[in-house]
Amino acid sequence: MRATVMYQAGDVRVETVPDSTLRHPTDALVRITAACICGSDLHPYHSMSAADGPARMGHELIGVVEEVGADVATLRKGDLVVSPFAISDNVCVLCRENLQTSCLHHEAAFWDGIPDEGGQAEAVRVPLADGTLVKLPVAADSALMPSLLTLADVLGTGYHAARMAEIRPGQAVTVIGDGAVGLMAVLSAKRLGAEQIILMGRHQDRTDLGRDFGATAVVAERGEEGIARVRDLTGGLGTHAVLEAVGHMPAYHQALGVVRPGGVISRVGVPQYEEAPIGFGSLFRHNIRLAGGPAPVRASIEELLPDILDGTIEPGRVFDAVTDLDGVPAGYRDMDERRSLKVLIRP
Amino acid sequence: MRATVMYQAGDVRVETVPDSTLRHPTDALVRITAACICGSDLHPYHSMSAADGPARMGHELIGVVEEVGADVATLRKGDLVVSPFAISDNVCVLCRENLQTSCLHHEAAFWDGIPDEGGQAEAVRVPLADGTLVKLPVAADSALMPSLLTLADVLGTGYHAARMAEIRPGQAVTVIGDGAVGLMAVLSAKRLGAEQIILMGRHQDRTDLGRDFGATAVVAERGEEGIARVRDLTGGLGTHAVLEAVGHMPAYHQALGVVRPGGVISRVGVPQYEEAPIGFGSLFRHNIRLAGGPAPVRASIEELLPDILDGTIEPGRVFDAVTDLDGVPAGYRDMDERRSLKVLIRP
Question: Which of A99, A164, A286 lies at the smallest CB-CB distance from B293?
């Protein structure tokens, strides 16, 4: 079968690899019908050393179940399923607390941590299939497919940012980053009742989409200038919640600059730093809270799915390009160079 | 009048200073009947340079109103009052959100930031008296005085740690630090329904008091050994909440080691560091939250006062020494050398 392999920064290839097959009785084999490239795939695309490659890529996928292991109870051949970016048994004590990204099962992992499997491919072996996969009540050619695919990561991740920020109706929210996750954070903040949603981003096609999703203001400036603009928009106080959907240190500093005393910085951009200011002069003095992490998107699929099915939300609008597997390396380039917001793959 | 002055690390003196007097129509002049030395006073006692001194000391006090400014509406001569460690107007938009430590009024401050005033003295000018002071419905010689004095800081600070950790009934909690605030955090965790309360501390007289306040286990070990002990006590998972009542970096690392995935580290020990690990390998991977800051104790006085008046809680047991003003320098030494847990001052 064919699959996407990254050899090192900037070097993405589509190659013939050994067919995925069942290995454990709890596995399912899924023929992929829709996948995509994630903003977080751009981190290794920038920094991966040749020693860390080659690596199979892709952690967002929808597909048709082709075969199930003997212990798989809830799925059967022909089911259309979506896979979150994290494998989980969905029954351990942490999964039951809706923290499937910290599932205690020994096979639990992120797709990016599983060698020899990945979503940007023709097929995939899904471990812990009963826990991981969620059946979709539509056909594989449904027009809703782009929106349904966002359930695998970006919609649930944006929603996680908003939920961890404990946004309440009437609050003011800043979203940092106009990538797909940032735009999903805007949509999610609106869903939770935020009254003022300030989107910090400087790509107008993206921020225009952000306005459609609920942003009430856009701030294109960065650094001190951007902070001053947000403060101006909030009577000097800053916003109750800041949803940080970038992961680089300047975004964290921006968040510190625009958060209101007693407010919360909720991070879902994977931090590209380890140490950062959290002492008296940054978080502590004004009781700023810090939240976030890898989104347990498995926990929100059932909650968000009806809104997609009935058209209340259209998160699939973040896809602005479609390709087959052959076009994946160009898709990475286009996303890296900001020519594409998010690329949908139909293998 | 006489007051406590710190000249530099290790150099605390009781001296004659100019009498405190009213300066603004919103001030009250309070004759102090009970005050104390705080664990946080030990930070400058260790590190203050001569260039930063001399500084008036003390931010926890109870006293009798001697005189009020023309604009003070709710207090009059003879009232017994307690002052939180932070001055606030209690009516601004942030005070109304119960964040009095971030009050927007231009006179708002912490006692430690006000030159020429301090609680370890015979009297004090209290700015924004209507907002700051809370009347106590007892006489100045009440036997409840030690417990009532904890409303000025340590009880409200321990309670803030527990509330910011959003402790729910049945949860497991680790408290780091067996100083007065740590012990108040134990009491507060119990008040909020925590089922397992692990107190990390190595002074047995203090941890014994911690057991009285509700600790279900004591871990005297520190570092990796201490972390392993807490993990043993929690089935390997760690605790939902960690209340960090120390402020030094090893305590933060301890907190990272014992917090459960999805859990929260709530800090009320004033951080003696600015940068710390918060990236993928520390907070982010398992959605660990960070909360806390200076406690808006003004917000909790009315809530906690009835429990003291009816004897439900006895936070005043943290005082194990009493002195007059002359004994204050020795009180600092005793607390620094861990001979006293907390020293009550009767000026």
Answer: A286
